[in-house]
Amino acid sequence: MTDHKVGTREDWLAERAPLLAREKEHTQLGDELAQLRRDLPWVPVEKEHRFDTAGGPRTLAELFEGRSQLVVYHFMFGPGYTAGCPACSSTADSFDGALPHLAANDVTMICVSRAPLEQLLAYRERMGWSFNWVSSYNNDFNFDFGVSAGEEVPHAVAPLLGANEVAALPLLSDPQVRDNLPPIASQNADATGTDVAGYFSEGHGVSAFAREGASVYHCYSSYARGTEFLMGYYAILDRSPKGRAEVGPMGTWLRRHDEYDA
Amino acid sequence: MHGHEIGTSEDWQAARDELAKLEAEQAQRNQEIEQKRRDLPWVAVEKEYELDTEDGRKTLAELFDGRSQLLAYNIMFGPDYTLGACPGCTNLGDGLDGSVIHLNHRDVTLICFSRAPIERLTAYKRRMGWEFPYVSTFNSDFAFDFGLALTEEQAQQVPEVKEMIDNPPDWLREWSGQIGAELKDGLREGPGWIAFARENGTIYHTYTVMAPDPFVAPYYNFLLERTPKAPPTEPRAWRKDEYPD
User: Fold this and answer.
1) For residues B203 and B42, what is the distance between their CA atoms, to the nearest angstrom?
2) Positive or negative CA dihedral for A243, A249, A250, A253?
3) Does domain A36-237 have CATH number 3.90.1150.10?
4) What 3-state DSSP class applies to A47?
5) Would you list the domain boundaries of chain A?
6) In this structure, how many other beta carbons lie within 10 angstroms of the beta carbon of residue A155?
7) Of A38, A222, A236, the CB nearest to B230
8) Rounded Cα–Cα distance for residues A166 and A181 (Å)
9) Cα(B83)–Cα(B181) distance, rounded to whole angstroms?
10) Which residues does chain B have within 8 Å of residue A20's beta carbon, measured at their own beta carbons?
């Protein structure tokens, strides 16, 4: 037996029907949101960022690889990290399967981090990934898009910073904040060979760009919970019998795929 | 030129802040719906099912692989399909392997079902490079009992299915060619997710969702909801090794 409410097929159908109506409404609203995202004004990227890549230095326009759209996952891996963020790593586990289908939709997807390229490529090999991972070690890209802590708060995403790790960094001097951080913060700091301040010097997010000829436009960015759609396992947990109900403090169950206990 | 509205960073930020509120509301609704799913009554599975796996026949209980939750995607790949599974379902399958180990550590076993015989599923799985367990519901009532497949008679009785068979749009004709089966057979398989729980030796059916639903779509579709240009609206799909260019 189980402590969960048990019913007949008829009971189940009677409760499934109104839930299905809500799911359909949610889908409809999701479609409207997708359209609103596409309605955002495009902002020309005036600065020329040069990235270190496995194929040599590349401009942002070159990272499109001839396609008209570029999606960047801002992967938390700063120069002070000894390894990539575990939560970002679990997210990135789903990327490779999507690449051929995104390419067919005129979309190139890459990861960008601020650690030097050699560190990124070594970690990519450890994880068995094949997506293009480029380094912004020698440019302002991460600072401009609010995913690395710099001296100046960047213009493009400043108010949204309220949502990500980099935005929390200045607040760490407040003991109220510092002492009440979710356990995942120190867990991930340990796992990346940093302390919380070091870990929060990088933030995760997703940004979308469009290219027309030589011009590149910034179209969309989202941070923190706004990137959850990329964590394939959460969508699946949401349909499982026990849901995503966390077994411990939020996210602390996540490990790099080669670091789970057998 | 593209004709899309161009703005300054300030224009973008103002519009983005408005959108962020709507996105937060949508996330909140998602959480409420997730709770409702968990509140559904569980229905005890009274019948014994044995299904073909790569490792021989297994009961439904054995498919849990020792965990308490089983989540399965039913890939449209019926016994009549001569050229492989539905390309759209195949694209969904391409997105699953990266999640398997993380789900396993949350007490969830993730698998796929199809109704074609196991040898054909195993060959197709190898072709696609998949690693998740792929289980055949061939020669079993399982798919019919849980609404994952229709008999020929049932297919004739569902007006939407009958209409698609009688008057297929171009993309559906093309799909029929991709799977190598007539629509009257091809459309008898149902694309969807099904979830089971196992407690103290009893198995319960907890949830089913069939297309269309954003979850019954490839992983990359979530990304295409965030790209600058709208993806095509027709549900035309190609297997990753069969793209035209």
Assistant:
1) 9
2) negative
3) no
4) coil
5) 36-237
6) 14
7) A38
8) 14
9) 8
10) 209
